[in-house]
Amino acid sequence: PRGTMVWVNLWALHHDETYFDEPYEFKVERFLDDNGKSLSAHERKSFLPFGIGKRECLGEAMAKVRMFLFVTSLLQKLDILPEDKNNPPDPDPTKFAHGITNLPGPFNIVVKERK
User: Fold this and answer.
1) Is this model's pTM higher than 0.90 or not?
2) Which segments does the entry list as coiled coil (predicted)?
């Protein structure tokens, strides 16, 4: 009906074995072509973190650049380690708490300035 809001369940789409072999494993090669270059949004087909169509995020390019700069500057300047090296956080996303975002269980980290 007119005015109906339609939402795509991106979590279900991004974890569908029809599109992603071993969807809970991080495999960067899913997002790269044979030459190691990033696939375009059209080539990624089922990966839609910024939406699609008329309602897709206008800030996608800016967000990607800013996040890249932010994360690389953090990793250049800081060592980020689990507080207890013998008991690191469980990286298994099937055990995360599900909601608007997926959250791992609580864990502590130590952040040290790189020398």
Assistant:
1) no
2) none
